[in-house]
Amino acid sequence: MDAHGESTTMSDVLTAKNADGSWLWCTTDDRSVYDAVKSMTQHDVGALVVVTQLEQKSIAGIITADYLRIIVQRSSKSTTVGDIMTEENRLITVTADTNQVLNAMQLMTDNRIRHIPVVNDGMIGMLSIGDVVSAVVR
């Protein structure tokens, strides 16, 4: 990668992060918030992508560890992920061919987000602010 992150694409960052492109997901109604947070804790991740249809990998939204505050206010075993997720129409994403890693970092900083889905025709991966910073350092 160049010194300024100007030619590295999000696809390059995903490849450096995880060659198989895996990411954690659930659907809007197949998991309680309790189960989703349990999965996030078991896999040591800070965000879980919510999809509408697994076959199409159609992204519906995202839940993050920030929702732990909500768990204190609601019963997490009876609340579905779809009830609390950030919905797709408010979701900040990048495409796999987005270049300029520094622009992605700025986007994450400006929107105060720590996780950003990478999409093309559907969901292809998830990057954290740590992944983006590591790409800049490399």
From TrEMBL:
Looking at the keywords, is Ligase present? no
Q: Which domain of life is it from?
A: Eukaryota
Q: Where is each CBS domain found?
A: 85-138
List keywords of the entry alphabetically.
CBS domain
- A Pfam family per the record: CBS
Whether Transmembrane helix counts among this entry's keywords is no
Cross-referenced Gene3D superfamilies:
CBS-domain
**SMART domains per the record?**
CBS
Q: Which PANTHER family match?
A: CBS DOMAIN-CONTAINING PROTEIN, CBS DOMAIN-CONTAINING PROTEIN CBSX3, MITOCHONDRIAL
Identify this protein by name: Putative CBS domain-containing protein
Q: Which organism is it from?
A: Cupressus sempervirens (Italian cypress)
Q: What is the lineage of its organism?
A: Eukaryota, Viridiplantae, Streptophyta, Embryophyta, Tracheophyta
